[in-house]
What we know:
alpha/beta; five-stranded mixed sheet; 9 helices; 12 strands
Amino acid sequence: xxxxxxxxxxxxxxxxxxxxxxxxxxxxxxxxxxxxxxxxxxxxxxxxxxxxxxxxxxxxxxxxxxxxxxxxxxxxxxxxxxxxxxxxxxxxxxxxxxxxxxxxxxxxxxxxxxxxxxxxxxxxxxxxxxxxxxxxxxxxxxxxxxxxxxxxxxxxxxxxxxxxxxxxxxxxxxxxxxxxxxxxxxxxxxxxxxxxxxxxxxxxxxxxxxxxxxxxxxxxxxxxxxxxxxxxxxxxxxxxxxxxxxxxxxxxxxxxxxxxxxxxxxxxxxxxxxxxxxxxxxxxxxxxxxxxxxxxxxxxxxxxxxxxxxxxxxxxxxxxxxxxxxxxxxxx
Length: 332
């Protein structure tokens, strides 16, 4: 049995299949951890979502900002849905859209396996959040996502503010938690997220730090695997394993094995070029989805650092670490 964590798929179905073949994924005995952002931009988001759904008994998914955007789109009127990009439109117009979106909405924001010694989150953790606190705060939002009031949450989750603070309440609190878990890259020691800073370390606004290097951060008792930050490239530092290597931008799709003492990294090339989305009309639902054998923002300008080996960052500071407006989706 093997446990593999996989970086952001972003609708790259063919690339995902090649990676599953390369790791020789066997659904009879292996488990996959998907770090979020299953959909958007890759041109094959419907096929990718169907694939991951078909593997639901053998996988764990945490939601990324693009997944939340899709869910919010799915909760809108048909007229509003027609305004979204063709890659997401194919999902919300598909005959199995309700089955897919209902399942996606029931996924978590944080996954923890203390026996294995790992935590998975899409983007990052606030400086003062222990792993236990991250689970607790994620669960607050998951209750809303999984309940009858999820549409109201989607209407209120957009925006860059407020920054996280323990005394927040209502949708301000939910929005701050979502932004930390699904949008964070850089932050200040007090937890303010640098939403607009998306490049490699050294390019950010003064006073901002990579979330896993921010001074004064708490010690964490689990290794963390995350995605979201394609410009960072494969980065392993202080217990954090960042594995979004920009498959959708022509970088690589990365998997790391979690249940071994030695780090094992497997990669396949991402999309050759940004491909145009296929016919916007959704294809008929396949009679049987076969998993692999036994197996619109500024980030586009930041070239992914996927082609080099893992970046092992110098330790800094204290302890080990282990959309905007009502119409725009969360950025990233």
